[in-house]
Structure formats: C-alpha cells, structure tokens
C-alpha cells in the first residue's frame, strides 16, 4: 500500500496476555477501505469460524466478544475533518451490532505509533491497560486506576506514561460506568471525544480493560502529496465561504437547535409534544452567553466545533471543560423540559466522568420522568416527591445514580428498553428505542426518511449510520451524486426508500470507512472526497467503486445484526415516535413506514424475514455471510 | 416565471408585512436587540428591502440599495414568499444556494427566534390586506 495506512493491525488477547501483529491486507483496504468497514470485516472473520461450526454468537459481555478499533486511510492526515476512527463490537445495550465513530487525536496517534487498528479479544483476570509506544506494546496492571473516573485516569496515565523526554501520548479510557457494566457506558479520549453509542464501554469493563495509552512519532504516508496540496487549496477557499462551517465554528453543533425548533426536528417531553416555548432558553445564543468559554478541536481540524464551557455560579458552579453537544443539550433539555443550561452542563460533565453515552442516558431519564408521572415508577424508587418534568436537580441526581448503579439508577443503567421490559404495564409505550437504542434528537416526523433510517440502521435508532440526517433536512448537499441531489419534501414518505439506499451507500463509504467527519466535511463534493482518498492512498478510486464499498459494508453490518437475531420486526419505530403530534411544525403528520419499508426491502433485496438474500450478498463478495445467514 | 410579476406589488406586499412585524413587541424586541441592518435582495421580480434594527425603532426602507448592511440575503421572490409560510427549509435553501446569505453567521442565527412567531402572522396579514390569493394552504 502506497499511502494512508500503517499496514499493520495489533491483536491483543487479554486472556493470555499475548499480543501479535498482522498485516492489513491490500485487498482488505480496497474492499472495506477502513474504519467501520474493516472493523466489521475483522469482527466477522474472528467469530465466523465458530458460527459456521454451529456455535451461538458471543454474548456482548463475554470474553469471546471481540472489540475492533480501526482508523481510516485519512486518519492522521493534516486536513480538516478527517481525524475520526471507529470502534466495533456486539452491543451490550441492544444485543445487535454495535459501532461508534469517534473524533479527537487518538486515531492519529495510533497510526503514528505504527498501527491502523487494534483487535482485542479475551478478558483479563484483573484490571489491565494497554500501553503502545511506537510499536512497543505492553499489557500493564491497571489496578491503581480502577475506580477512577475518565478525567482522572486520563490525567494520571498521561503523566505516568509520558516519555523520558516529556512527550505525552493519548489515553482512551472507561470510567466507573464501564466498570459497573452500565449498558450505555462510553469510552472517552481527551475528556471530550466519545465512543458513545451502543455501550461499548461495558464491553471494555467486562474485559477488565481500563484504558489504552498510545504514543507515536511516525507520520501518515501520503501517496500524492502535490495533488493533495492542490486539493487543500481548493478546499480552503470552499470552507472560507461556507455558512455551515462558519455556524459550526461559531456555535458548534448547538446551532442545530435554532433551526431544528423551526422545522420540527427537536423532540420535546419524551417525544410527545410538538411545541415547547422553553426551547428558546436553550438557543445557541443562550448557550454562548451562559456557558461558553472557548473552542476545541480534533487532530488537524480547523473547524473547531467542540465547545468548552464553565459554570461560574449557582448549584453547578465548578463545572469546567468539554461542553454539551446538540444531542446532549436536547436529551437533558428539551426531552426533559429542562431550561436550566448549567444543569445540562453538569449532567454532561457527570456522564463524561462516569463514562456514559449522554444520548442514551438522557433519553432514559426522560423515559423515567414519564414513568414517575404515570406511576410506573413510584415512591419506592425515589427518596421524596416524584421528579417532575424540568426538575433540573432530579435530572442531575438521576445521572449520578445511573453512573453508580444505585437505587433506581441500577434499573435505568440497563437502558430504557430493558427497564421498560422489567417495569411492564404501559412502560414499553413510552420508549423511543429501535433495536434497543434510544433515538437521537432529530424527530422523524419532520423528515420522514429519517424514520426509515432509524428503522433499518444496523445498530438501532441512529442518525449517523448513513448520511440521511444531513441530506434530507438539508444540511448537506452532494450535488454530484444524482441520487442524493433529488428534490425533497421532508414531510413526505415518497421516494425516501431510494434516498435512504443512496445515503447508506455514500454515507458508509464517506463517514463510516474513509472516515470523514459528517459535520466538518459536509462542504465536500463527492469528487473532492474521492480525490482526497485517492491522493492519500495512491489508488485512483472511482466514486462507483467507493459507493460499492459503502454498500458492501452496509450489508455486512446488517448481516451481523441479523446473526445476532435482528429480523424484520426489529425494523420498526416505536409508537411514541410514529404518533402524529397535535401541535408544532409537524402537527398531524407521520411517516408512512409500510410504504418506505416495502420499497426499501425491494431495493435492498431483503426477504420478508429481514435477511438480505444470498444473491445480493454473494454479488458483493460476502459469500461467508451468505452461508452463515442462509445455511 | 415566478408567482409575482410586479416589483411594486411584491415590494408593497412584503414591505408591508415587515412593517407589520415591527409593531409586534415580541418580534421588534428581538430585532432591536440584534442591532443588525439587513438587506433582502429579491429577484423575479427585483425588489430590495432594508430592515434597519440599529436605532431605537425598527425601520423598514423599501428600495434601499445604498445603506451599508451588516447582512445581505439573496433569493427569488417565490422562495421568500414560501419562506414566510414556513415552507422553505432554511438549511436546505442555503446549502442548495436557493438562498445566499452574506454577513456574520452568528449574527444571522440570532435572528431565528424572531422568525418563528412571524410564520403564524404572514397568512393572516395576507388575508387582511387584500392578498388572500397568495395564501398557501
């Protein structure tokens, strides 16, 4: 391989304490490109043989469940919006395929240490951490760090493992929530970038893996540096005049709330109402005035969309550091009818320290508030009067209880779907989950194709499993892919199946495998994205070829969830997300799921049971997956 | 060709609506707080309107192409008309260049809270001022 890749994958067996290296095969890079594509392929390779012999798929919290960390060919290249990398495994929250896409500096550092990725198998008998320094690998005792929160372990390991010359590495770590197997535990780096969704922090906890420290001194080889320099100049001009990029710089992802409140994108009160005047108190300007202290960014990215905040007074004074993103603002704000921005910053800070996905945590708390309101949760679950909507102190306390698995927090730490199953009665009707994953803060009643995107995403309700979210509501326009540049009416279900297929194929290549940031890289045309990959790797890719990579990886992830038991009945939105609202910008409207699913299954050649047919899998070179699903 | 054939008619209709908004306290308050001077430049037909929020009261100036504006917004008259019905996705219009905004983005976003209540007022304004034929259901 000429450029982009380190060419090696590190394999760690925590049970034996052994490690080894394997080359990243050129055909693997060509067919799966990187990130979640290579991650899913390596995962299936690891469990496929046992499955073929009749074994059951590994439980998510068993030693047999591998975790695959992978960079993409662009990770570590000094360009805007390409710092990202992925983590993949079976999700302990959903039981289906779990993967997550992360920013920061860890991926770039891993590649500079000589590895494209890390495959972790087995489980350590006692707390362990992995230390990687320029190709030197050691599994160390993590007992002194066990029980510490993500911020503390990050600070301590960064200092404890710095080089004799003082060079600091990067730490990826779980907190107490991962150790206690909170089903939506996250893995964090630099205290502000998270492998958040699908609870892979609990997989780490089950493996007794506290942290990975990595320090490297290498650089990413660029196959065609002059061509890349030309592209860099072209993109600099493009970014200078792009409104979205300027909005991201000014307000980060928080800018979404101002527009989302106008279009019906923002959900309120556990998804049951379409209007809430309090949303104005959560505006990007209010956030700027009350919380913002500065910006932060990922490796080499000039967009600088990450927020730094500080709460200077009141009950949450002292919160300082990474600020809530849009999703976090909504789950602890609009979804709970909470207008208190400092409390949202506090809830975010607690999630970060315990190491929890803010999205699942906040959505589970909104579900709990409604359970308290309706009597499904009662006085035996709480120490005083039942928490009310907008009760900032109770929301913050619930985060702590979940992080510590205390009281009602122990139930909620299982995730809202499992909690609803345990509570019974009307509780399942209050859920916002698809395949057990709590939905993101984008209401599909405002953009019907999102409903299908959530329904058929391999990892459950997710706005980042494809590019449907930025494309259908209009935040991204890829003019040179005709299937993505169609005329759109958001509150209609017509044509949305075909659009989903295109946003999956392009999005899986673009954000899943390459791995472009689906925020900062939005201005790129498809031609520019392909050119960047080609300049870096030295392979003159075509858009068709990369769309095929995206399609192949989409089916692979779908197939993995199928192997874990996902069927057609799991491709459905819960009633709470489908019921037409009485008020707000989407009043009276709801997606036509039957139409979209029928069209989608036909376009994707998926049988009525929900399995991709053998022919389509074999056509993409996924013969082994076809055998596992159809034999 | 768009729905509006006369510059004078569109300027009177939309300029009147903007003037109507300046006397709605909740909207005027937000506009004045922004201190912005916004020029809307419409095509098909050509019209220019300035919303000046830099003083003690919001001032609407029809045909003003001279004042130095903080923000300039460019779009067709049809897009503008549908926008005030809440039928144009602002994000999509911007990324697809159906609307072009020039000026500081943060300041433009500050205006969004003022826009929301205006959506509800536009159809009523049209009906009450002889433009009922332009109401979009």
Task: Tell me the β content of chain A.
Answer: 5-15%
Radius of gyration of chain A: 23 Å
Q: From the 3D coordinates, which CATH architecture of the largest domain in chain A would you assign?
A: 4-Layer Sandwich
Can you tell me the overall shape of chain B?
globular
CATH superfamily assignment of the largest domain in chain A? Aldehyde ferredoxin oxidoreductase, N-terminal domain
CATH architecture of chain B: 2-Layer Sandwich
Helix content of chain A: 25-40%
What structural class do helix, strand and pairing data of chain B support? alpha+beta
* Unreliable spans of chain B: none
Number of domains of chain B: 1
> Which quaternary structure do these chains form?
heterodimer
Distance between the termini of chain B: 21 Å
Radius of gyration of chain B, in angstroms, nearest whole number? 14 Å
For the largest beta-sheet of chain A, the strand count, sense and barrel status come to: 6 strands, mixed
- What's the name of the CATH homologous superfamily of chain B? SCP2 sterol-binding domain
Proportion in helices of chain B? 40-55%
- Which two chains touch over the largest interface? A-B, 24 and 19 residues
| Number of domains as seen in the coordinates of chain A | 3
- Please state roughly what percent of the residues of chain B sit in beta strands, choosing from under 5%, 5-15%, 15-25%, 25-35%, 35-45% or over 45%: 15-25%
